[in-house]
Amino acid sequence: MTYIALISSVLVGVLIVFGLKPGNKTVQLSLSFSGAYLLSITILHLFPEIYTASNHSNIGLFILLGLLLQLILDFFSKGAEHGHIHVQENTAFPWALFISICVHAFMEGIPLAHNHNHEHLLWAIVIHKVPIAIILGTFFVKSKISKINAILFLLLFSLMSPFGSFAGENITFLTTYKTEITAIIIGIFLHISTIILFETSKDHKFNLLKFIAILVGMLVAYLA
Q1: What is the Cα–Cα distance from 76 to 69, expressed in whole angstroms?
Q2: pLDDT digits (tens, 9 = 90+) for 104-117
Q3: For the whole prediction, is pTM greater than 0.70?
Q4: Domain coordinates in residue numbering, the chain
């Protein structure tokens, strides 16, 4: 079920790209909703779990490490994880961006293994991956990459989080240091979700639709 949900989230995003051809405003609103949901799940469920499970007084250092790690990934991905990707016609394949976003997807799948809040975290990742898949799919459509290659790369991207979850269940190192690794992932989630939510709006104007999307995302996470 976990693997199917993670793969399906990317496929849904791809179908939206080819079927509905959503505008930038729609994608940004979906990002706001997913960012709010992801942040809420992190604060309401992952934070309590990580501090309850940890016997280390320095667990916060691993959260900070996750924040720094995502900063490094952002350098290569150009912020694709939180919607900052500039789509241009006839763009060559961005290997650094793709590898970075795949590393991010792999890592966010690791905490799904043996997690007390598995369902909450799973849906947070699924909801987050849909707009990311839309952005990545749109990039491929407008670049000079062939459709076959674009589909293959999107399929590979869809498998990264399931691979991460599988690794978290079967690799001894990841199971032994599950708490510390989850703390790193929390830092990554905090970085991504807060940038999506709190980045400066154009001309510093209050965006009512974005505010509503954020509010709904937090409310859904709380009620879940």
Answers
A1: 11
A2: 889 888 888 766 66
A3: yes
A4: 2-13+27-223
